[in-house]
Amino acid sequence: MHTRFIEQLSKLACLLTLVLSLILGVFPQVAWADKAEPSVLFDPSGTGISVVTVYETTADTQLDAISDVLKSSKSLYKKMPGFGSFLMLKSEDSTRVITIAQWESLDAYNAALAASEESTDSKKSKEASSFKSKKGKVAITPARTVVFEIDGVQVPEGLLPGIQGSKTLVQFSEVILDSVDSLPKVLTGAEALLVGKPATYPAPRSVVLFRGVDTPEIALLADWGYSANQVSDVSKLPVLPVSEMDALEPDQHLYELVKVIAAKPEKTKKEKEED
Fold this sequence. Notes:
There is one protein chain. The chain is an alpha+beta fold. The protein has two domains: 1-29; 43-262, Alpha-Beta Plaits. Helices cover 31% and strands 30% of the residues. It has an eight-stranded antiparallel β-barrel. The protein has a two-stranded antiparallel sheet with strand order 1-8. The protein has a two-stranded antiparallel ribbon with strand order 5-6. The chain is globular, with a radius of gyration of 24 Å. Mean pLDDT is 75; it is low at 18-34 and 123-129.
């Protein structure tokens, strides 16, 4: 009987070992799979603005630009009133890094700029500051910063326009017009393009059309929801209708989502009382 008890105890020990291995091995994988992917939404019904900053890079400077801009962004955006969201994209050809920051209003953005200019640590707080690579040999400055407002969106019924998923493939096309008079015509063509996008295959998850607030510029942001190696024919991606118009050629690139920064959540009443 004693021998039988030992055998049962041994089986129980084996069972416990198996259960522990499942807990330590399987559950962390499940938790990782359930982890929320980075995302940012664009609300066409609000009064917010989107500030696009373009950095021109090379294969040698792109990673340093990403690192330096992110360091500056983390210290600025989350603490500023009126900040909505921030996303960073890197071009697949290594020639661009762009950031898109959403603000509740133009006044909120201007106030943030004023506050950053008064900061004594301008390298960390000023959005348009120059960034040096880790080697200290290359200075990377923004090629341009443009304030946009949303002119229109195209998204399947029941969904919200935005970008979701780490490393998702995004197309950003920007057109600088020769004059403000060309803006209505180009916008009309771009809006017509949006109407036809859901009928194409493959179709982007969502498309956002921007127009410059104070400048004659438009931009198209298309979230494809695929990684770069899944797109074999780039001609299927949308192109702004700028031919035979009073406009320059679009600055058009494929990008990969690098980072999303959300606004710092407001403290609850209880958290404020504890402070």
